[in-house]
Model the fold of this input.
Amino acid sequence: MYLTQSLAVSAILFGIGVAGVLIRRNAIVIFMCIELMLNAVNLTFIALAQQLGREGQVIVFFVMAVAAAEAAVGLAIVLAVYRHKESVNLNDINLLRG
Amino acid sequence: MITDFVYWSFAGLAIGSALLCVTRRSPVASALWLVMTLFSISGLFVIMEAQFIAAMQVLVYAGAIMVLFVFVIMLLNLGRERRTDRLGWIGSAVMFSVGALIVLQLWVVRGSGPSPELVLPAGTLARMAEQQGAVGMISGPLFRDYLVPFEITSVLLLAAVIGAIVLAKRRL
Done:
């Protein structure tokens, strides 16, 4: 049910997430676009789980757990960087640039 | 027909909220539009016979992860962004075309699907949900075939909690 439509919606959401990661310079908004990409992939798994078995939903369960862990650690990193640089703009976080 | 209307309204809402999330100037507005996107995707999950995952999406993603995002945005006291906080017109056009390129690459494989011998008969998941319950459908494989990944996930979450606390401390 709705397999091709869901795959198309998932592709569009993933493309929007990619564009967001590339366009924005605020580190937290970039994190949010990464979460959007993860959700697009979750939608793909659920759409295919209808045809290929409920293991797709189990995979989505694990993806959500890993996304939660990643969001927590990533935001802690953003906080630590903000404490040093007073900014979350990626243009200012360029210590590794030669 | 009602299902079609519901499905396309949730899908349209998801795509519209995602576009708005990516383009807002204020980070709090972006976070709230992302919450709207997550709710719409949860609605799509319900239509596709994944009721437990839909509830988990609302509870975990929209209810915990996005609250964490809003906490951090409020903690850093970020205001609206300035002109230099995103690429200019040319850069934005290039990046949107990169996103469109990805969608195009995925559109090329639109005709393909899973091979017929792997596809379950239609309505299998709906029948499973009816017999075992929406939670039983997930918990069966989760606690039998995927028990080791389940336990490893708990270790991963512990590591993430410890890591987040250590990273955010002022003085170790």
Summary: Residues 50 and 134 of chain B are 7 Å apart (CA to CA). DSSP finds six helices and no strands in chain B. Chain B has a mean pLDDT of 87.
